[in-house]
Amino acid sequence: MQFDIITLFPEMFSALNYGIVGRAKKQDLLSLRFWNPRDFVQDKQQGRVDDRPYGGGPGMVMQVQPLRDAINKAKQADDTAAKIIYLSPQGRLIKQADIQRFAEQPKIILIAGRYEGIDERVISNDIDEEWSIGDYILSGGELAAMVMIDAIVRLLPGALGDPTSAINESFSDSLDGLLDYPHYTRPVIDSNGQAVPEVLINGDHEAIRRWRLMQSLGRTYLKRPDLLTNRSLNPEEAVLLQKFLECSKEK
Length: 251
Ligand code: 9WO
What we know:
Distance between the termini: 50 Å
CATH architecture of the largest domain: 3-Layer(aba) Sandwich
Mean pLDDT: 94
CATH superfamily of the largest domain: SPOUT methyltransferase, trefoil knot domain
Order of helices and strands: EHEEEHEHEHEHHHH
Bound molecules: ligand 9WO
Number of domains: 2
Largest sheet: 5 strands, parallel
CATH topology of the largest domain: Alpha/beta knot
Shape: elongated
Radius of gyration: 23 Å
Strand order of the largest sheet: 2-1-6-5-7
Oligomer: single chain
CATH class of the largest domain: Alpha Beta
Number of helices: 8
């Protein structure tokens, strides 16, 4: 998958050289290309990519020309059709289902803004979609672009290792739309005297599957009930959630 990133700070993206995304890059599952609006400044006398906002007010606005030229170079760099995305707090909130659709694209051009934003004429004429990673303001779009790339890349075939392995085709797919279950590792009793739940130690894999699903359902119900309003429960899940709630009453 090809990512073309329009940014004044390409060096920030070295954060993507680590972990799963770093390995995927080495395997050429994705390619990052950078286009710096600073390199497209025509008036080298001034040498600026930003200017004061019409109408006054604080801060600076990214100018149309260097940004538009960078976007056009990113489009023309190959023959692959690209989706052009601007990351901003005004965009649609990205959900995992959106990440799954992005992962099917051959090429995405991501625009990371700086200052107080980009000239609105770029948003209306040069951009396909505007997306947000959450309801907060960052100092620029780069971290949002990296969050998006990270979430997409781990879905690319091969990124998590052998896609046919028992681990990857797991059960975690059937937890789709639910919160994760609790995890434990050695030692079986920790330094506070707290033990690992018995069911996880006994080796009954069907009992473990049911317990984990029950925990996922219970945690989702308690912490993020909004996630359950658009997800129907099958008969097994309904019974397990009831059992979770009965057990938590007792305690
Ligand atoms: C800063 C600011 C300061 C004074 C008055 C108005 C202001 N608006 C902004 C602002 O929104 N700056 C943005 C910084 C401009 C676009 C790039 N920046 C950004 C992107 N911040 N947060 C994001 C972002 C992107 C995706 N998802 C969540 C947040």
